[in-house]
Amino acid sequence: MSQPAFDFDLDDGGVPTFSVGELAEAINGALRRRFDDGVWVRGEIQGWNERGQHAYFRLVEDTGDGKAVVNVQFFANSRARLRPLLMKNRLHLADGLKVRIFGHLDFFAPSGQLGLKMSGIDPRFTLGELALERDAVVRRLTEAGLLGRNRARPLSVAPLRVGVVTSMASAAWADFLHEIERSELAFQLRAIDVRVQGEWAVTEITSAVRTLARHSDLDAVVIIRGGGSRSELATFDHEAIATAIAMSPLPVFTGLGHEIDRSVADEVAHTALKTPTACAAALVEHVLAFRQRTELAWAAIERRADRGVQAAEAEVADVAQSIRHRVLAAVERGDERIAQRAQRVRVGASRVVDRAEMRMQSAVGTVRRVPQRLDPEGRHLDAVAERVRLLDPVNTMARGWSITRTADGRTVRDSGHLQPGDELVTTFASGTARSRVEETTP
Description:
Elements (H helix, E strand, L loop, with lengths): L19 H15 L4 E13 L2 E9 L4 E8 L1 H13 L9 E11 L4 E9 L1 H21 L17 E6 L4 H13 L4 E6 L7 H13 L6 E5 L5 H4 L5 H9 L4 E4 L8 H5 L2 E3 L2 H94 L4 H18 L1 H6 L4 E4 L16 E5 L4 E5 L6
Parallel strand pairs: 3-5, 6-7, 6-8, 8-9, 9-10
Antiparallel strand pairs: 1-2, 1-4, 2-3, 4-5, 11-12, 12-13
């Protein structure tokens, strides 16, 4: 260890003087002796920065009086060695993640900073912290009565108008859109492009959900993203996103691309699906089910209408048959009455003729007895014979007269008894004719 030499005398009390490089070596030596086997440190990652294959960040703890910070170097060889462990536990190191890491302390002389060279990590600590935070959010939502609120929202029978919250540059959006287009249904999509991970993800997703929820012309809101690590999906465990979903007046569907874990967003959503494709398929299924119910309803209406028409046709046929029978019966009764009256006329005429013949014979005798009365009685006899002849309906009709009756057999004696449209049956000396009244004149 070198000591400076001066021409004047200094009283240093025997305490050695170090150069900066010597002090740096002394500090590192002390650190190696004190922390020779390395050290475990826990805190929150901040300022994550990648330079090539290396990564640098700060490990931060809020002590109450301020922040305690340790600079961490995560070199390429350690990253390559720990990558399988991180992938197995689906962890992605990023800002805001609480970790418990292992490394060796090192005082870097060129910058004068103490740092930790990271060489190990405890995934259980991070997963436990995530679980604790998730459980705390779920507990607060439950206490506030928000956990099942969105599930109680009624879903439209045909949710065709859908708002979508996603990263539109992602495969999740492409998969969702492909499934919707493949259905060939008339979906109307209104998408908002957001970050689904990182520093601004929570703010953008929350704002997008609230914006779409204010649109009364939408049937549902969909939140989708592709698969990712547990730490990346922890974005959807955030209380702000969960509250926005729970408070939405529209049903919210989630398809966050994870097969195992359920995020808090899934817990509060109306319907939680595993993937964006499954989310789209669920919407398509709802619409197809509505279409099928509609088609079945129309088929039932058609069947009922057919039965009604058939019943009406049968009823009309029965009425027509009944009318036919009644008309025929009325005509037959009319014919019988005409025959009876004709018979009575013939019998009456015969009697009149007989009486007339008797009177004629008596008159002939009288004439013979009283020749002077012959001529008047002869004239009287001719008049009586003429009257008898006139009383015969056949002779009357032979002169051009006819008998007119209504369709039910009633004899028409007055035009006032008729109405336009009435059907008439006219009997002549030879044959009958049917006619319909167009106009009547008093």
